[in-house]
Structure formats: C-alpha cells, structure tokens
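Give me structure tokens for this 148-residue protein.
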Amino acid sequence: MKAINTKIMLFLLGGALLGGLVSCSQVPDMMLPPTVTSPAMKRTFERATQNDIAAIQKIAECYSRGENGFPDDDREAANWYLVGAQLGDSSCQFSIASRYMYGNGRWPSVSKAEYWMRRAADNGDPMAAEILPEVRDRFNRYHGIPQQ
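Here you go.
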C-alpha cells in the first residue's frame, strides 16, 4: 500500500476542523483494482494518489460509471470526489454535494450537501451558485420530507 503523502494527511486533519465532515474511513484506500490493466489508467491512478485533481476526477468518474476496468462503485466514486473537494476543486465539491443530497455513495445529509454546494459556489461553479438556494428544498422533496 502506498504511503499517505502530506496533502492527504492535511486532508485528514482538516476533517476535524470541519466539525467531523470527513472521517478517516472516507479516504480511498489507494489500492488499484486488479481489473485495471491499461497502462494509461495505471498512470492516471498513480497521479491521483499524488493529488493531481484531473486524475482524481477521472478516477472518480471511472468508479461512478464502471469504466476502464474500475468497478461500478458509487461509494468509492464519492470517496475520490471527497478527496478532490477537500483539495479545493469546485467540480469535485459540486459532485460530492450532489451525492450527499441524493444519497449516492454517501448517507444523505442536507447539511453536508449545503456545505459542499456553498464551497463549490464560492469557488466559482456557476451551477452550484444557481441551485444553492434550493438545496434544502430539493433534498427534502427527493427524500419525501414534508414541507413545513
């Protein structure tokens, strides 16, 4: 197993500062699935473990879609999006917010959905800025929570 580098360690420590939004169990285990045989995808995975945002996004998408030898695994996709979100990528922040909102690979949480959607909006994601005011309402409607 690869050693955890400094940015990942800061990611773990940052979780405590965010009121427990991130736990150690949410960090990807950094093991390349044995079904991934493409040299290009192996290099992408290696770059992702070194905090390359584009590579993190690609690995998350592969897990999300079950492509390029990666299993279709929403939880593992969410783990990678959370790493990218913690590193400040607005696209990953939007993706993890959506996963918290709809419960894809994460337990649904309106507070975490709002937190990450706000971070994405603050980092310039136009879609996040557009739907941020509606996040709580969308969450409640999707999960069948009666409106007050």
